[in-house]
Amino acid sequence: xxxxxSDTINLTSIFxxxxxxxxxxxxxxxxxAIKGFMIPxxxxxGGLLGISILIHEFYHINVGIPLILLNIPFVIxxxxxxxxxxxxxxxxxxFFLGIFLSFLPVPAVTHDHFLTAAFGGVFVGLGIGFxxxxxxxxxxxxxxxxxxxxxxxxxxxxxxxxxxxxVFLVIALYLGIEKAMYSILTFFTAVKVSDYVxxxxxxxxxxxxxxxxxxxxxxxxxxxFNKAITIYKGERGNLPGSYGIKHxxxxxxxxxTRIEVHKIKKAIKRIDPKAFMFxxxxxxxxxxxxxxxxxx
Length: 296
Prior knowledge:
alpha+beta, Alpha-Beta Plaits, four-stranded antiparallel beta sheet, 11 helices, 4 strands, elongated, YitT family protein, N-reg_PII/ATP_PRibTrfase_C
């Protein structure tokens, strides 16, 4: 994600077939969620989508109108604070969203409340995730959260949860506590699905290994798996029943993807069954060879 407003507009990236397909599939999934699950059952999600459906419930206007109008200020904010390319990607995503909301016929899929909450959330999550993979967003709260995170230091999740708490309180007040509870379920399902779509098997994991044979572990990770490592100087030992017996050691740390971690763990166990390992999920990385761009 660019942090400079002076970045050059990359039309090749914006209008590439892959980027357009991600956006189109994402918007289609989002429209299926909105028209096939949520509106027929008077269900809401979090974010600007939830606010837009709430406006639709009150005033019976096309849900696409408030959804696009509410997103426009955030597109402008992203143009000024994040980057031109990201803003154009998002504007194009909103254009597709308006078209498909207006012209794609989607019948009500189910009237079961639990299925609506669960699968409505799944389809919303797929829609948001695919659009992000295409370089844009269809819910401007992500832009606000990113900007506020940089300005005030609050995490993105804290900001989004705080805003959505207000949305869910309004839902509870006007539509009832049951609808609010189902809306919360829809929201958290959507968040989990979109996170998985965006990160998928590329989600980064920190693997730490403490072994009496650190050189073998280092060679395995660097030479066999082509991964960079960081070495901390530490101590191993001090076990129950043998407190005070300790040895200097190298603590090996590497960053791998979700799909790689199982293979590396199995390989380490083969060459050193006594190696101690633990895994930490990484929320964010920057710099080095592990950095990833989600927006182009």
